[in-house]
Specification:
275 residues, 2 domains, five-stranded mixed β-sheet, membrane, transmembrane
């Protein structure tokens, strides 16, 4: 063998080795782009990094628009009946960030107590609201609410199943009438429904039905139906990971598999050349 051929052979081997290196880099880049990237973006979109997570363990029962609409709906009934209406929902979770309410331009809410600021997560998972605004308990402002009715729901949340597994609901009032959870049962709003797939929406239905129940019991005059009836807010559903993330992961798996085949083929060619 000539000296020229001997000098070329190491260069060829080095080129074969570079093929494996490029294959590894290719797999690393694909993993970062199609796996790590979408996962980090999903975590950012769910609010993991800024504390505004939308996960089932930290999401509020009502979104900002839904809670704002509920407060406005109750405010209209309160003007007619001279009764304050509200809600108290214990979601059974220890770390919940209430959504900042969104009101129309015609509604002016009462100041929210500083201890219930929307900037800080609720330490006990309890969400409050009333005709005075989201975060305002009518029972704590007797000067503005001498007569009040409050819907209550107390959930048990399973951190293992990541869902509500039981609930007890009722109606509290200082009016001279008897109000219980059975009044909601008569409207088809049962505890079983409050645990169903549309639990958030049924909670909104229960709260919105309070003025009608009070009127039927003789506690106040009926509220005239609006000219254009507006359905009660359906609440925010806690959504799972988007389908797009799984598509990205599927593509990533295929590309990574292709990269591995490339590396194996390069290694086989390298050994074949050496032999």
């Amino acid at each position: 063998m000539s000296s020229t051929q001997q000098r070329k052979k190491p260069a060829q081997n080095k080129k074969k080795d570079n093929s494996g290196t490029y294959g590894c880099l290719f797999v690393i880049v694909l993993t970062a782009v199609f796996v790590v990237g979408p996962i980090l973006w999903g975590m950012y979109d769910e609010g993991v990094f800024d504390g505004s997570s939308k996960s089932s363990e930290t999401a509020p029962v009502f979104g900002g628009r839904e809670s704002g609409l509920l407060a406005e709906q109750l405010a209209e009934a309160s003007k007619v009946q001279n009764v304050c209406y509200g809600w108290e929902i214990d979601s059974g979770r220890s770390f919940v960030r209430p959504a900042a309410p969104v009101y129309s331009g015609t509604f002016t809410p009462a100041p929210v107590p500083s201890t219930d600021s929307f900037d800080d997560p609720s330490s006990d998972g309890v969400e409050l609201g009333s005709n005075l605004g989201v975060g305002v308990d009518p029972r704590k402002v007797p000067d503005r609410c001498p007569r009040w009715v409050v819907f209550t729901a107390d959930y048990y949340y399973s951190s293992i199943d990541k869902e509500w597994t039981s609930v007890s609901s009722g109606i509290k009032t200082n009016l001279d009438i008897t109000l219980t959870g059975f009044d909601l049962d008569d409207l088809g709003i049962t505890n079983q429904e409050l645990l169903g797939d549309n639990a958030n929406g049924r909670l909104a239905d229960a709260i919105g039905a309070l003025p009608m129940i009070v009127a039927e019991k003789g506690g106040a005059q009926p509220v005239p139906a609006p000219a254009a009836a507006q359905p009660p807010p359906a609440g925010d559903e806690v959504s799972g990971p988007g389908v797009g993330r799984y598509i990205f992961m599927g593509i990533a798996i295929l590309l990574i598999a292709g990269g591995l085949v490339w590396i194996i083929a390069a290694a086989v060619r390298s050994r074949g050349s050496e032999s």
